Amino acid sequence: MASSPSQTPAGVPSFGSQTRAAAAAKGSPRSLSGLGPFLRPYRVQILLAAFFLVMAAVTTLLFPLALRSLIDGGLVKPDKGEQVMALREHFLMLFGVAAALGLFSAARFYIVSWLGERVTADLRNAVYARVLRQSPVFFETTQTGEVLSRLTSDTTLVQTVVGSSLSMGMRNAVMGIGALAMLIWTNPYVMFQVLLILVLVVLPSMWFGRRVRKLSRASQDRVADSSAIAAEVLNAIPVVQSYTAEAREAARFDHSTEQAFQTSVRRSKARAVLVAFIIIATAGALLWGLYQGTQAVLRGDITAGHLGQTVVYVIILASAAAVLGEIYGDLLRAAGATERLMELLHAEPAIVSPSNPAPAHVPPAGSAIHFESVTFHYPSRPATPALRDFSLQVAPGETVALVGSSGAGKSTVFQLLLRYYDPQAGHLTLDRTPLASLSLDALRTRIGLVPQDAVIFSASAFENIRYGKPEASAEEVYAAARNAFADDFLRALPEGYDTFLGERGVRLSGGQRQRIAIARAMLKNPPLLLLDEATSALDAESERMVQAALESAMRGRTTLVIAHRLATVQKADRIIVLDHGRIVEQGTHATLVAMGGMYAKLATLQFVA
User: Which of 61, 275, 390, 421 is deepest in the core (most CB within 10 A)?
Assistant: First the structure.
């Protein structure tokens, strides 16, 4: 199960560990600008959040002024009665400020939290939809576990920033700037000195923050590696357990999580040093300013209320700087997460629909297929052609079987017809229309595929059959199941057709899963059927029944059949024998046996056995 390094073909985006180091070396919090298109539709909510944010910050900045008024105006009254009344008024004013702060903060919190949830959901949906549009070449270089990690942990980081950290950062920035402005206005000479010291704090903080961001990106990549290993192994649990490899796989996962832990520790250590530096240096600068203020009181330059106001503004400025130091670390982590998500979101599919697709005319009696001098090699294996100068014509309604040893190119024919890939040379048409000029939806809608490994989704049997035709009625679903000889065992399930089949259909046998896949293709009722070892998982009795059903379904449509068991293709109109991507023989079963070539040898080996 240990993964080996794969070669990335030219022009194919790679998201493996080889490119992560380079990706981690670039970018900055500016990477968060990639979230702009997801924030833009919610301008009204953003403006409201900004309004309440500014009002909460301004209200906070009113506290020191109210405190100064309380000290200078309420405590210095010579008459006790006047002093009590003045204190009452000032405390009521302070309570009013506090109430306004609470209301503004609550409104800001709700709107910003809503924005975080909404933007994260939109981002997750957009990335997932983009991944679904990728061609198979994308998944040759990208592990599904890594994609899942980006959809979960990375979007959670983005949600934290959009729904909390960014708002807190802006609020503290407004309060810090406001407090600094008030301090400069009231003590310009002293605060000018403090400002110079703060500049000396900010510059090294920005330099050190780059290291924190790189470590944040590396930490997220290590977590993605662990997710990729877990997804791979959990999807192959029967094989892992059959080889008693549980301990080995646990050790491999443990090694991966340990690497993620060590990287996270380095990130946390660097971030802790950054935060400590910002807090200590900022506090030192502000305490210097506060010391100068106390000297001014002693000299009689300012009042005690003025000093109290200065103290509170210093506290606001210091706490704002501390919070901004923390939030800057969150922004760095979110920047790394956003970079990774943007890589997926901006990955261009290798196969796309044409901008002006040809009109799709679905033939009533099967599709015509024409391969003309097609040469194709997979991007991950550029030196080994899967098809070489391959030419084949299939008439509407004809049933053609493709046989040959493993690696001969049979499945490649299907993948080119479905346009998972485009050939490097030659032409391929469907009903006299070049495949590349048809939209992908129009092309794949007219093709029904029954793969060798039947795919069952985590849903009911009814929904699994109706997957190929979501608008089908219940009676159409039942009819397709009867034609695929699946009706009897489906009705015998605990809840009949509504029975949940489990992940990948674990509650069914291989033959039952195959018959559901066949029923799904029958329900779609396409003009072109592609059967890739469609009866390989069936026992002899089920194979006989399903073969009869398939023969009935083949009538009136074109069918291509891949089969290693020659007994299943003897009735085909034509049998194509492939060897190393070339057609070496073709004809009926009887003709090919009489020729005494490769097919005859295969038939002798199977039928004599």
Answer: 390
Contact 108, 49 (CB under 8 A): yes
- Strands 387-394 and 425-430, by their bridges, are unpaired
Q: What is the pTM of this model?
A: 0.68
Neighbouring C-alpha atoms within 13 Å toward the C-beta of 118: 15
Query: According to DSSP H, which parts of 235-303 are helical?
Result: 237-242, 246-299
How many secondary structure helices (H) and strands (E) does the chain include?
A: 21, 10
Classify each residue of 410-442 as buried b or exposed e, where b means 16 or more C-beta atoms within 10 Å of its C-beta. Answer: bbbbbbbbbbbbebeebebbbbebebbebbbeb
The 3-state DSSP class for residue 459 equals coil
**Amino acid making up residue 470:** P
Angle at the Cα of 19 (from 17 to 20), degrees rounded to 5? 65
The kind and range of the H/E element at 427 are strand 425-430
Provide φ and ψ at 583, rounded to 5°.
-85, 120
Judge whether 480 and 465 are in contact, CB under 8 Å.
yes
**DSSP state, residue 492:** T
CA distance 483 to 480: 5
- Angle ∠(429,430,436) on CA atoms, nearest 5: 55
pLDDT (tens digit per residue) in 355-413:
888 777 777 778 899 999 999 998 878 888 899 999 999 999 899 999 988 888 899 99
Structure confidence by residue, pLDDT tens digits, 151-179: 877 887 787 777 777 777 777 888 888 88
Packing angle, helices 188-234 and 246-299, rounded to 10: 170
Task: Indicate the pairing of strand 425-430 with strand 582-587.
Answer: unpaired
Buried b (16+ CB within 10 A) or exposed e, 245-258: beeebeebeeebbe
Query: Letter for the amino acid at 268?
Result: S
CB burial readout 33-51, b (16+ within 10 A) else e: ebbeebbeebeebeebbbe
Return the residue matching tokens 């080994």. 384
Q: Tell the burial category of 579 from Cβ atoms under 10 Å away from its Cβ (0-12, 13-18, 19+).
A: middle
Q: How many residues does the chain have?
A: 609
* CB-count exposure of residue 150 (10 Å: 0-12, 13-18, 19+): buried
CA 360 to chain centre: 32
* Contact between residue 465 and residue 477 where contact means Cβ atoms under 8 Å apart: yes
Residue 354 has pLDDT above 50, yes or no: yes
Q: Quick one: tokens of 46? A: 């953003």
Identify residue 409 by its one-letter amino acid code. G
Residue with token string 């906070």 = 60
Rounded distance between C-alpha atoms, residue 446 and residue 442, angstroms: 7
- What is d(CA 186, CA 192) in angstroms, rounded to the nearest whole number? 11
Tokens encoding 605: 């080996």
* 3-class secondary-structure state, position 526: coil
CB atoms within 10 A of CB 495: 10
